[in-house]
Amino acid sequence: MPVLDHNSLEFISRSAEQTRRLGMRLGGVLQTGDVLCLAGDLGSGKTTFVQGIAAGWGSLDPVSSPSFVLVNVYRGEDEQRLYHLDAYRLDSAAQAAELDLDAMLESGPLVVEWADHIQEALPAEHLLANFVWIGENQRDMVFTARGDHYQNMLAAIRKQIFGVK
């Protein structure tokens, strides 16, 4: 377990609905160009969390795992887009680069499941969320901000949840 500092936030979810609600809070603060990297084993709650992110962001489309298409694009108001990339089947950062991540970031936020598979292709500054399966209805989520923008984002989420920065 990591030692947490002001750049990190740990949240223990006790249900899928609680995981979705936390995702909704994060989705509500996402902006075009933001990168959210998700890490964790199969079944640790990443896709459930993305369902909440999309709802909080204002997606007009339902969320599903993009495992078989690599990238799902969810529509928002005013032609906005939320990109949901599943890097599980990618073997390298070069394969990710072929997806034109820069173009995605110009038109919306990007959420990357299995981000560790393509870390070299992603911006150095991002928000990392590490998911750990603890039990049938319990997940441990540790969020780590990499960069000032993401520290501010994490502070906003911390204030929403706990009332403190």
- Please tell me what the overall shape is: globular
Query: Which CATH first-tier class would you pick?
Result: Alpha Beta
Please give the domain count.
1
Q: What is the CATH topology?
A: Rossmann fold
Computed CA radius of gyration, to the nearest angstrom: 15 Å
Number of helices: 5
Series of H and E elements: EHEHEEHHEEEH
- How widely separated are the two ends? 22 Å
Q: Main beta sheet, described?
A: 7 strands, mixed
Number of DSSP-assigned strands: 7
Low-confidence stretches: none
Q: SS-based structural class?
A: alpha/beta
CATH architecture descriptor: 3-Layer(aba) Sandwich
* Nearest-integer average pLDDT: 89
Hey, roughly how much beta strand do the residues contain? 25-35%
Helix residue percentage:
25-40%
Strand order of the largest sheet: 1-7-6-2-5-4-3
The CATH superfamily is P-loop containing nucleotide triphosphate hydrolases
Short summary of the structure?
By secondary structure, this protein is of the alpha/beta class. It contains five helices and seven strands; from the N terminus they run E-H-E-H-E-E-H-H-E-E-E-H.
